[in-house]
């Protein structure tokens, strides 16, 4: 028959499946099943053997669409390619294509070996990304999907977390591009939803006292280990990630040293931290709790892993009203507080920078090989003594 829209619509359902062929259609036909489904098909020969492939189902595939698909299939035949086999190969590849959930698992395994912040990445991706995008094929994720996810995080008033989530997704999808999982990232052109201001929060002496003793408030729900971690931030002025990732093997409590290996330091430089009496006292109080494990602060669920950074932020946020500090603060503010108070005591910014293990640039970084161990010890001992005086009751 001649194929027209009205003619195709008028084709009746019969008890058995049948095919109507287009007049002079070069093998193009319509298959009608007993349940009323109609599909465009193409009958052809490849290497002498008869074959049939489905081009598409009505009404999704129109008569015009079928004409285009039919022409493309015939072109493949002319080039010596079996169009049906090619279509099946595409379907198989699509079926086996990575989902976002699969990519997340692959990325986390890579991050464990290459990123110090892998645990935080895992938390973000498992909490907010996988439940929403996990079932999608990576190749099918569009910019609008990313924007909808980020907008949902903004809607719950978590602007900074929205920034962190976008940064994590962008890193993961760039990883997918590098691994040839996708050709380009849908994050391209997506801007951070919130502008972040550089913080300058420093706790006053009164706030330090309230923070320290506020952790022991009977209404505060924070484990002993996390309380010690928060206090170590203030006492040692080291990064929260380096404290939570610290292993007992890195400490010499008798000699009063903590050596952070370069693979754990943010600037990838090994760092020796002198331990004041106050720091040693905190660590000795921690030993009965976690001394049998690798890490100072092992995860509650997996003792072979350490606590993630969000645990410290969460502890402060959930218990802030009981800690009785006038203005909200973050774990990083405790490190900044220690540095600021040390400079106010007359300790040079250079020595404080050495304690903080900031990366150096320029000619100084090349020629200044002095370890500053003595200067750092004097500074942290002085800060420890100052803290002890503040906290005397």
Write a structural description.
The protein has helices at residues 5-9, 63-78, 83-96, 100-114, 118-133, 143-155, 159-178, 205-214, 224-236, 240-244, 277-290, 310-323, 331-344, 349-356, 363-367, 373-391, and strands at residues 18-21, 28-32, 38-46, 49-57, 251-252, 257-260, 271-274. By secondary structure, the protein is an alpha+beta fold. The strands form 2 sheets. The protein has a 4-stranded antiparallel sheet. A 3-stranded antiparallel sheet has the order 5-6-7. The longest helix has 20 residues, at 159-178. The protein is elongated and about 100 Å long. The model has no long low-confidence stretch (mean pLDDT 87).
Keyword list:
DNA polymerase, domain 1, 16 helices, 3 domains, Double Stranded RNA Binding Domain, hpI Integrase, Chain A
Tell me briefly what this model is:
The protein is α+β, with helices and mostly antiparallel strands and 393 residues long. Helices cover 51% and strands 9% of the residues.
